[in-house]
Amino acid sequence: MYYGSGDYSVEIDDRALAHVKVAMLSLLRAGHSFAFSHPRPATQGGGRETLWVSPSVELRFRFRGSRPPRISADWLRLIIESADSPVGMRLVPEPQTGGVLPRLDVEVGTPTRSKGRPSVSSQSSRGSSQSGGSHVPKS
Q: What is the pTM for the complete model shown?
C-alpha cells in the first residue's frame, strides 16, 4: 500500500491487503477520516507507525498476485470496527469463521452504517443494480 503522493509504502501481504483496501475504501466513501496503525519491520527500524487517512490523501494498493482473494466478512467487520479504537484501524488477526463474501471483482454492493461506520454481512450482492467500479460488500 502506498500512502501520499510520494513513494512511502507499507508492506502487507496480498490477502490482508485486500481486506484493508475494502475496509479503507468503505470508510473513505462514507466520508470518514481515520488513523491506520501498523507495525514497522525490523529492516525499517521496528516499532509501530500511525498514518492519518482521509479522502484527500492519495492511497495506492499494489498486489503481488493477479487474482483477488475471497474476502472474509467477519475479518472485514473486525478491521472496520478497529477504526473506532483509540489506536485507529489496524490489521487484526483473521478469525477462524466461515463468513466469506463473493469475489469482489465480480460482486458489487453498497456499504451500510453501524455506529456511524459502514458495516458488512456475508450475504451475496448478486443481482445488484449498482454499476461502476465500486467494490464494497453489501449488507
A: 0.67
